[in-house]
Amino acid sequence: MSRIFKFDNDVDTDQIIASQYLLLPNIDEMKSHAFESLDADFASGVKDGDIIVAGDNFGCGSSREQAPSVLKALGIKAVYAKSFARIFYRNSINIGLPVLVCEDLHDNVTAGDEADIDLTAGTVKACGKEFTCTKLPEYMQNILNAGGLIASLNKEEN
Amino acid sequence: MGMTIAEKIIARAAGVEEVKPGQIHTVELDYLMSNDGTTHLTIDMYNNKLKNPRIADKDKIVFIVDHNIPAENPKTAAVHKKMREFARENGIKFFEGKGVCHQIMFENFVEPGQLIFGADSHTCSYGALGAFGTGVGCTDFLYAMVTGKSWVMVPETLRFNLKGKLREGVYPRDLILTIIGDIGANGANYKVMEFAGEGAHNLSVNDRFVLCNLAVEAGAKTGIVEPDEKVEEFINEHGRKADNMYVSDEDAKFLKVYEYDLDKIEPVVARPDFVDDVIPLSQVGDVKIDEAFLGSCNNGRIDDLRVAAKILKGRKVNPDVRFLIAPASNNVYIQALDEGLIDIFMESGAMVMNANCSVCWGSCQGVIGENEVLISTGTRNFKGRAGHKTSKVYLGSAATVTASAIAGKICGPDEL
Q: Is the pTM of this model over 0.90?
């Protein structure tokens, strides 16, 4: 089971990881600062396999790939939102972090709820209901399945 | 079926006759730009993750150190050193301390009709010269650096027909904030914002930069102003080529068409913590400020500095306000020196910084403290963007920022 961390609309990448940490040497040094301004307990509380459920326009603003990277490094298994800002969406797929558009999930769950997720089927079971996510275009799904864009490139060069 | 400007640029980059929204195409990039916000991670991946590390075409790659320059601590210095050495070893174009990355690209490289990826969200600025620039992360950048290629999904286009002229005291900054306030922070998500009409052609290329630069704050993949003889003139003056001046066909399909009368635009500000929370300046109320910032890729050009100098001449910055000014590039800085603008700034009590991202980036210069209020020409006003999480950022034009620095509260020049 995955525990839900819930966020509202228009969460920008500055909130996910602030500018002042981006020039640290690597993602491991940055990750403890994830969501520092919005939820100071996030980085210490999140466990491997947990998920984020958000409203509209998740990941807007800066193109910093550090944003999806710190979430993945902390163990976030997937991000579900009503909609995503495009650069965050693309960056997440490129690093192999599943991002799924799910219209109804946000309005039906509370932070801390448990969810049973099926990434292959694109479904989430939570609060006694099942939610279905929009399928990714095949091209992007293939990148995700390969484990990200660089893994996909390395595979092409076999 | 006719095509939009963006569709024509993608078709050229994909080497096909026609493209349609929703299609995914493999494209060849004209330039790849990366700055010190992420390049160290790209280099680490290049060195450690690739089976066959190589650079497809070093002449298309530009590294620019502009975010934390000069370095403020040893970790940043290490990031810059890594970039500098990688660029040197691989023959990559390298700029350090010369200005904000997008201004450097604008002054030196961008040509109409090009498709450019930049590892920075404000790469969408290049539409000022009729190019398609878009922001990517470091993995996309790395893939493109290695292969010379990438993929794009053809976006739909929102068309903004502009008519008339901005009144005196109203700036492109007010126009684009008004538009973002109208359509919202995701009003153009995944889409292109195309600006056309005689109102667009009345704007200088510097003004167009301001419009395209903030397109990403409405979620857009890019912003493009229909190129014309002003673009051609700029490109020729800078010794570059204007071979692909694409305009949308008569029968091109737009997802939506908006009409804006520039004569009706008034000065506005965006309130904390969202760029789309836009209100008329006249309704902002009594907001005291601790700091003012003039600069960034949005408003650090000579036009903005001239506006500020005209207001500041013979006046003093309010003793309770720190006023920081950062020209967008060294070329802008030198021009401002030649025109005597820097003297005016210094005499007024402002601090003139080196050409860099400065306060807009919130990590290097002019960081604000607990509960402090900043009025800025920067690109964003997100929670904590300029420093402490309880601090507040208002966005406005160069004129509004300068007048506010003098008054100690948010206002326009007519209230001084």
A: yes
